[in-house]
Request: fold
Amino acid sequence: MVKIAQANPKLDLGVIQPPKLADGEQGEAFGGAGPGLMINKDSKSKDLAWQFIEFMVGKDVNLQYVQSFGGLPVRTSAADSDYVKDSPVLQAALQAFKQFVPNPNVAGWVQARDTMDTYLEQALNGKLSTKDTLAKMSTEVDSVLKKSR
Reply:
């Protein structure tokens, strides 16, 4: 996000906060590519993997790492860094981050999420009606999930 904003400062780049639901409850957003690290259940080197994760999420290492590509740090303590304080985009992302939910560990999830993204973008840009968006999205997502079982 930071690199995009630096490359084109006039670009209207923003972060949409997850909307509230009809009952007033705060909505959530599933995380996509981001600061998450994981250890596979069948990993043969779980101790080494955990050591790597601890290293990568250390305050100084993580801040240096995310600054290299313009990402969002994983530690709330990094919010006080100049890197975060000087970026309106990162400030907005931190606000939205409170409503992020990690991607579920479900076969086909990423493809299903990307499919939903495609249809939602079309709806938001007025290319599809809400009814058509939901119908097409539902059919395609069901197909993706069925194939991944």
